[in-house]
Amino acid sequence: MTELLEPSVDFVFKQIFGSEENKDEVLLNFLNEALRETEPKPFVSLTLLNPQLDKNALTDKQAILDVRAQNEDGKQVNLEIQVSNKYDMPKRSLYYAAKMYEEQLGEGQFYKSLKKVISINILTFNQIANDRFHNIYHLREDHTGELLLDDIEIHFMELPKLNLKPHKMDDRLVNWLMFIDGAPQERWEELAMDTPGLKKAMTTLEFLSQNKEARALYEMRKKALLDEQSALDYAESRGRAEGKTERDKEIATSMLQKGLPVSLIVEVTGLSETEIEALNKKLH
Predict the structure, then answer these.
(1) d(CA 81, CA 184)
(2) Distance from CA of residue 265 to its chain's centroid?
(3) Labelling 197: which of 29, 111, 220, 234 has CA 20 to 30 A away?
């Protein structure tokens, strides 16, 4: 049996949700579940705004393989999966939503012609400090909660929180997200039973997994993402180490000022005698 590709790898995600073949069944059904709470009526049709996949971008760790679409009313959606926590998702999502909003307005057009933009971020890590797997943000007045306007809408869907009990109306959305999170095939029939479009997504994943070219591109993309994660992990660990060193130096300086012996300072802070002597020189 062929090992399935991971739907959470952005290359695979874009092939499933961002292709012309799947936009009317897979993408449309997913978006209607994702936007059930905020859209007064389901989307009827979609136009993909970036259907092409630049294969050269697969080795670029910074490349964004998102899915952008526009519905029949001119509303635009940006759908993205993010596997690396760069600690900038709120700003990043707001930036892309604002950019989509600004790009609509051509020379001589009026502001009233601007249409709603929706940013949907599916995350393989936790971002929001609550136990909801699906959080939605708008522009609201701080005291009354009154909506200023509905033109900017940002969603965060956190896959690690799926094991928490969801709201009943989100059950089909949970099915979609569990598939994206890599649910085993023995659960597919159960997940797809009452979730329109999900069976087509599963069939697409099976096809991609058996396609030699798709698998080669997948491995290329996965390596780039792993390299990026390794770089982020290294930077984070280095930052922690540098922070610890600075704290140790502050403690050593305080101990020197109190006249405590160097041997004790070495034992407490882990700094070398040479480092402590250098700090002592700065004090005098």
Answers:
(1) 19
(2) 44
(3) 220
